[in-house]
Amino acid sequence: MPTPPAAQRPAALRRRRFLGSLRERWSRRRGRAKRLRLSRRKGAAALLSVSAVALAGASDLAIQPGQATPDIEQAAVFDPAIRRDAAKLSASEAMVEALVEEEGVRYRVYRDVAGFPTVGVGHLVLPQDNLRVGQRIGHVRAMELLDADLAKAEDGVRELLDGLPVNQHEFDALVDLVFNVGIGNVSPEESPRLNAAIRAGDYAGIADELDYTAAAGRVARGLIHRSQRRTRIFLEADYGDPRTA
């Protein structure tokens, strides 16, 4: 029997379905963010109009000290190359798609290369998940687990950076790192050179420390490619799969 095309294989179909759901979710998020930006811009425009009228003497309206004003900074469109506080960033759609490509999507609990029970998009099964190897979860729960894991990874990156500004693709690469290896493995004790580079603001040094290729004490080919991809994201904003380059 001939081998079906990759796009028709079950794993590829699961990944495509999952990415489709992610794109819909990101589209809704972008719509909400756009509406929020427009609202803030209208507020900023109203503030400027009121100030102009007051300065012309046509009104006694004025902005008093301490009065709430629109967040003009948040309304601005930022150049993605400009480094910013990580608190203002979250994982990009491109990063999440790359992460799903690397992790795959599995609805049945399995053991990963290190022997840990895993499900969904690389979700490490926890006692509170009430799951065991062989059990299945639904698509919605897999999405929910990914959302929660991404939020943990983003918080872990913000903690790791400790105020060091980054741009979007640098933040994304670090999110992939923390998602992949866990926040404990990038601690000062486990990754002293990475933390030293962050303290020194040495971005090239940070890139040098994104190479994590071993699982359970053995080098895994998949992790080699993932580390290459992560480094390219950090340095070049290149989210492509190095296997297809």
Automatic annotation (TrEMBL):
InterPro entries: Bacteriophage_GH24 (IPR051018), Endolysin_autolysin (IPR033907), Endolysin_T4_type (IPR034690), Glyco_hydro_24 (IPR002196), Lysozyme-like_dom_sf (IPR023346), Lysozyme_dom_sf (IPR023347)
Catalyzed reactions per annotation: Hydrolysis of (1->4)-beta-linkages between N-acetylmuramic acid and N-acetyl-D-glucosamine residues in a peptidoglycan and between N-acetyl-D-glucosamine residues in chitodextrins
Enzyme nomenclature, EC number: 3.2.1.17
Superkingdom classification of source: Bacteria
GO function terms (MF aspect): lysozyme activity
Keyword Heme: no
Gene3D superfamilies referenced in this protein's UniProt entry, alphabetically: 1.10.530.40
Main enzyme class: hydrolase
Gene Ontology biological process terms, A to Z: cell wall macromolecule catabolic process; defense response to bacterium; killing of cells of another organism; peptidoglycan catabolic process
Keywords: Antimicrobial, Bacteriolytic enzyme, Glycosidase, Host cytoplasm, Hydrolase
Entry similarity comment: Belongs to the glycosyl hydrolase 24 family.
Classification via PANTHER family: LYSOZYME RRRD-RELATED, PTHR38107
Stated name of the protein: Lysozyme
Species this chain originates from: Erythrobacter litoralis
